[in-house]
What does this fold into?
Amino acid sequence: MPDCIIIKGKKIGLGGPTYIVGEIGLNHNGDMEIAKKLIDAAVRAGCDAVKFQKRTPALCVPRDQQNVRRETPWGIMTYLEYRHRVEFGQEEYEEIDRYCKEKQIQWFASCWDKESIDLIGQFDPPFYKISSANLTDRDLISHARATGRPIILSTGMSTMDQIREAVDVLGTENLLITHCTSTYPCKPEELNLLMIQSLKREFNCPVGYSGHEVGLSTTYAAVVLGACCVERHITLDRAMWGSDQAASIEPGGLVRMVRDIRLIERALGDGVKQVYESELPVMKRLRHLRKGA
It folds into this structure.
């Protein structure tokens, strides 16, 4: 079974650098200028990719919720109207594709329905992402797998049996599983980072981490524990409207996260003990003194 996958020239998994994804999701609030600023922030930080979320509102909003009225920054509207207001469509994704190519950063999306998979597929994404909410949707994940593209499978709010069933449908070829806990923001004691290693042992495929916590230290721990991919939500301001904003990283924090992950990668080494050349003068001096004593 594979221990890494190659995505458009980038190795993700054994021996490769951590693939770092800035999860824009719906934090753009339906505003293309905000989306572009978030792409810019990911580029400046050195992310490998940005990710969006794509739904077809008429398919994804339950019928009993569609006409429920709610307050929004754009006035009182039905929930279905709100979902249309914050979703990007064909025209917007054409512009995202153009802009990401200009900025030389990969992009992809979590697709919540078959129509969304087909729409995003027009743009040759490096992955399809199956969100934790859709892990049990066999029709959807089968449709995604039938495209032949690599899949990222997120495992929040799922039992091990449910994860096994999804992997049975997807197979492990060109599959990357991400451990996560679907609480926004998530308490440290519910992150359960050792699941990264448990998923590796169970499925013998690349395993990453999708974090929804506040702060960066636990994300660094995920890298040390072997996460080959890290995904964190990003925002321009955590006080902005939206359910994911509070669990997101602002641009300055994103810069620190990418910088520190790259430092951690260098510090981890290869696990083979050696005497470094920089140690030789110290060894000569200190062991000579010890012999003399």
Summary: Residues 66 and 141 are 25 Å apart (CA to CA). The radius of gyration is 21 Å. The domain at 4-292 is CATH 3.20.20.70 (TIM Barrel). The longest strand covers residues 19-25.
